[in-house]
Recover the amino acids of this structure.
């Protein structure tokens, strides 16, 4: 499958119902994090809650109910908050990059400063681990991200959005080693979408539209594997073209 139009990936999220250490969310919450190069949109399908963000405008809580859509760009820290049975269709730009790790969790500063410590804290158990073991590790990861998030939010409250600079610098350091591989993936999969649109518009200016005779249709089923443990909840995913 070539992916959704515009190089978008999609997943279905059931937000964690694990109670949070700060008591936020009647049911629980996900792990605060940001994306380094990709934008994201929440399309709410069921339940209620909110998404909390830390960005250039400071802290904000955006209510979520069926039919709500909230979008956030790279660098904006976001945390899904579950007030009850919250389910979200997640749309991500740059299909293939979010799946390759284009996210940085808000761990405490000491962890963010050490790439090895960050990888150890962020990586869930692999093949052979039981679901209980993976769930426990995902919850520990979430709780550690909440520790750093509490520090970060307090700093933003005192100093304003400039307090996010240290997190952005850490995210850049952590992501930099992956940039060549991400660029190759993006150039191979997402960039052609923009090129094809540019070519179609150029043809229309000339009064020709050969692309209309090359239209395609594709379909794919959701991954049949059990939902994986994502940043903010259990994810049902669909294949990308990577």
């Amino acid at each position: 499958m070539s992916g959704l139009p515009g190089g978008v990936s999609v997943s279905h999220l059931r937000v964690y119902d694990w109670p949070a250490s700060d008591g936020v969310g009647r049911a629980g919450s996900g792990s605060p994090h940001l994306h380094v190069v990709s934008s994201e949109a929440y399309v709410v399908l069921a339940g209620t809650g909110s998404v909390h963000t830390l960005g250039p405008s400071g802290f904000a809580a955006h209510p979520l109910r069926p039919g709500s859509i909230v979008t956030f760009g790279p660098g904006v820290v976001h945390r899904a908050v579950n007030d009850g049975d919250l389910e979200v269709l997640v749309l991500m730009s740059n299909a293939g990059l979010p799946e390759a790790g284009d996210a940085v969790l808000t761990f405490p500063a000491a962890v963010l400063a050490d790439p090895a410590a960050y990888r150890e804290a962020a990586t869930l158990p692999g093949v052979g681990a039981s679901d209980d073991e993976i769930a426990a590790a995902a919850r520990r990861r979430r709780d550690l991200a909440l520790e750093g998030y509490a520090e970060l939010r307090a700093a933003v409250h005192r100093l304003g959005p400039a307090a996010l600079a240290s997190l952005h610098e850490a995210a850049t350091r952590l992501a930099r080693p992956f940039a060549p591989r991400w660029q190759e993936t993006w150039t191979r999969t997402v960039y052609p979408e923009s090129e094809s649109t540019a070519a179609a518009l150029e043809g229309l200016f000339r009064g020709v539209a050969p692309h209309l005779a090359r239209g395609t249709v594709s379909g794919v089923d959701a991954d049949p594997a059990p939902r994986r443990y994502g940043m903010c909840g259990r994810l049902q995913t669909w294949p990308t073209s990577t």
